[in-house]
Amino acid sequence: MSALNKEYKRVTVKSLVEMKSNDEKISMLTAYDYTMAKIVDNAGIDVILVGDSASNVMAGHETTLPITLDQMIYHASGVVRAAKRALIVVDLPFGSYQSDPKEALRSSIRIMKESGGHAVKLEGGKEIKDSIKKILNAGIPVMGHLGLTPQSIYKFGTYTVRAKEEEEAEKLIQDALFLEKSGCFAIVLEKVPASLAKKVASKLTIPIIGIGAGNGVDGQVLVLHDLLGMTHEFNPRFLRRYLNLHDLMTEAVGNYVKDVKAVDFPNESEQY
Fold first, then answer.
1. Is 90 in contact with 120 (CB distance < 8 Å)?
2. Residue of 103, 180, 190, 270 with catalytic role
3. Rg for the chain (alpha carbons), in Å?
4. Tell me, which fold does domain 3-241 have in CATH?
5. How many angstroms separate the CA atoms of 269 and 272, rounded?
6. Burial class of residue 121 (count of CB atoms within 10 Å of its CB; 0-12, 13-18, 19+)
7. Domain regions of the chain by residue span
8. Active site (annotated) includes residue 123
9. pTM to 2 decimals?
10. What is the pLDDT of residues 163-185, one digit of tens each?
């Protein structure tokens, strides 16, 4: 069996680097609970991200900022129990790593010990270098995140495309090179020009996972609820909906309500 067609019983950080070297694209999706993670894992996903986007899609917050470390550990624990093949990456939530490297390490250790996750992800470049170094020195794998960084939404004031201007684009490249040199095993690039993302992917030996970053990168990530059409208000250009579960589920629940009201459920065959 060639390396290109290699089957991974368990995807690891090493597997992702190997996939990049063999020009095999990496598939990544979010999941936040046991049931959904089991489906995603059984479908053959390479990486499951327990994203702080749970703040939006699971709790209904406007931003990712309110979700806590305890809540991230709760979500990650269910995902870890479900997944048998995928690499599980867990977001460090806002406030758990930005200001104090020791707090960043404590947060990462809690995620690894209490959830069983395989790696952590955090947003930013050189400005959080001490936190990254502290976590990596403890032997905890780190995935970086550059471009649009949702935890900094109030700094940017908008979810628009990042790094369109030359100065910001050059900073992103330098931050990506810094993250690779520091020891990060992969980087998510969110909502940046496709040409810039392709350039970053070609310069680095570690995988670049894109979301709204074109197809010139090493893999793609989407929020599962968006992909399945469970959310319907969010319609960015980069999102492809593979199902329309919002309407299907609404119809199913409506039919249940109708059958209950009409005393059609349960029928004779559904009783003991």
1. yes
2. 190
3. 20
4. TIM Barrel (3.20.20)
5. 8
6. buried
7. 3-241, 244-272
8. no
9. 0.94
10. 878 899 999 999 999 999 999 99
